[in-house]
Amino acid sequence: MINYILLPFFSLLLIVFQMMVSDIMLFGKIGIDLSLILVIYIGFRLDIIRGGILSFIIGFIHDCITCSISGLYTLLYVIIFLISMLASYRISPGKSAFIMIFTLICALFEGIIIILFYPLLYGGGISSHALMSYIPQAFIVSGLSPVFFRVFNRIGVVLNGRDARPVERI
Amino acid sequence: MLFPKKYQSVIIVCLLVIISLILLSYSVKYPSKVGFFRKLVLETAAPLANIITVSFEGLNEVWKRYIFLVGLEEENRRLKKGNALLTQETIQYREGYLEGIRLQKLLALKERINYPTIVARVIGRDQTSIIKTILINKGTSHGLRVDLPVVADQGVVGRIVEASSHVSKILILIDENSNIDALVQENRIQGILQGAGSLGCSLKYVSKTETVNVGNIVISSGLSGLFPKGLLLGVVKSVDKTDGGLFQKIDVAPFVDFARLEEVMVIVLNQDDER
User: What is the C-alpha to C-alpha distance for residues A94 and A146, in angstroms, rounded to an integer?
Assistant: First the structure.
């Protein structure tokens, strides 16, 4: 139960933190989507119910803080969680290279979905600058993912009192 | 349980996706309506954002200050270097300016003297030993020779006692071996101006019957042939007639400050002039 209280709060903190880092240190030019790494991590580590609900909450918080429309990131994060979870059946996330490649694919997928949905949701075309910023963002998030996987793992150990290994699946 | 356990997970995920899609659709249709949970999240995020912003700004400030200090040190070093260069440049300009003034004075003197002259720079001085001399950077290759008179803008410096190819040695006025035929300008009384070391000079062989006053100007008489007539030698600083003997004791202060002499002018007399 504690996970359902602490993890959303931790997610909120993470999203606020990533927003501030982007705003203050990178002058808002590039966003570092750390919450995406968290969702991928959840996909690899948690069961479908807990992970699904947490991804939903993280997406919703992300929507509330960074988007004017609710539901976009909520849907995206649930989908990315499912993809991660399905990938975890086939591949072990032990190697940094795999985590990086997988995160890069997910970040690019996220970018493509946002670009595709943007005209439908906001009624206008996305700027070329925003379009081009997704690629470096995806690479930065990909590069940071192994580090944050370790950080999340440590937090998981602190919260659960043991290493957060994949639990019983469907 | 409403659903069988083995489908529970799939159903929950499907529900989440469906809720997300409903949320998205609703939000697109009614963008101005802000739900309770959205408000709750924003209200919770605001103080967190505030704390993080303040912390970041603090760190940013420290970082900027550090960068500023690093920059300041660099700037300080650069400014110090620039300052040293400018000081050096100023000194050079000042030197040039002062040299110009001195040379201008020498030039004015040159115009007064009806003989060819050679300007030379003082390259060494020896005024501590018994023989008081200075060295100049011109010698026989420039047309100088022994016994030529040397003057500065203030007056007579001395005479050349040694001349090599590029350097000459001048016996200065205050050396005890220096003797110049002199006149007291005011009353034309003649005497011999002899060097007295650090005391200056003394005008010798002036009879006690003659009147010489403190402040009288002493000039070269031109009689010996070494110094042209009328060159400034010094000023009478004391007169003593009490001493037992035929002559007065007259102390003369030379016009030239030998310690600060930098450029001099050698009067190139020809052999006939000297005679």
Answer: 9
The pLDDT profile of chain B, 275 residues, written as one tens digit per residue, is: 555 666 777 788 888 888 888 888 887 777 666 677 777 777 777 787 788 778 877 887 888 788 778 778 888 889 999 999 999 999 999 989 988 888 888 888 777 778 888 989 888 877 666 677 888 999 889 889 988 999 998 899 999 988 888 888 899 998 888 899 999 998 899 999 998 887 889 999 998 888 999 999 999 998 877 888 888 999 999 998 887 778 899 999 999 988 888 889 999 887 665 55
Q: What is the ipTM of this complex?
A: 0.75
With CB atoms and an 8 Å threshold, state whether B45 touches A64.
yes
Cα A14 from Cα A9, distance rounded (Å): 9
What 3-state DSSP class applies to B258? Answer: helix
Distance from CA of B84 to the nearest CA of A (A): 39
**CATH code for A2-160?**
1.10.1760.20
Q: In sequence order, what DSSP letters do the residues of B50-107 get, joined into one string?
A: HHHHHHHHHHHHHHHHHHHHHHHHHHHHHHHHHHHHHHHHHHHHHHHHHHHHHHHHHH
Cα(A25)–Cα(A21) distance, integer angstroms: 5
Query: Are the beta carbons of B140 and B163 closer than 8 angstroms?
Result: yes
Q: What is the DSSP string of A41-98?
A: HHHHHS-HHHHHHHHHHHHHHHHHHH-SSTTHHHHHHHHHHHHHHHHHHHS-TTSHHH
SS3 state at B48? helix
pTM of the full structure = 0.51
Phi, psi (rounded to 5 degrees) for A94: -70, -35
Name the residue ranges covered by the structural domains of chain A.
2-160
Among A12, A55, A56, whose Cβ lies nearest the Cβ of B41? A12
51-80 of B, contacting A, C-beta below 8 A: 52-53, 56-57, 60
Instruction: List Cα–Cα distances, B186 to A42, B190, B224, in angstroms.
Output: 116, 11, 20
- Nearest chain B Cα distance for residue A92, angstroms: 22
Quick check: helix, strand or coil at residue A4? Answer: helix
Nearest to A17 among B17, B21, B52 (CB): B52
Per the CB < 8 Å rule, is B24 touching A60? no
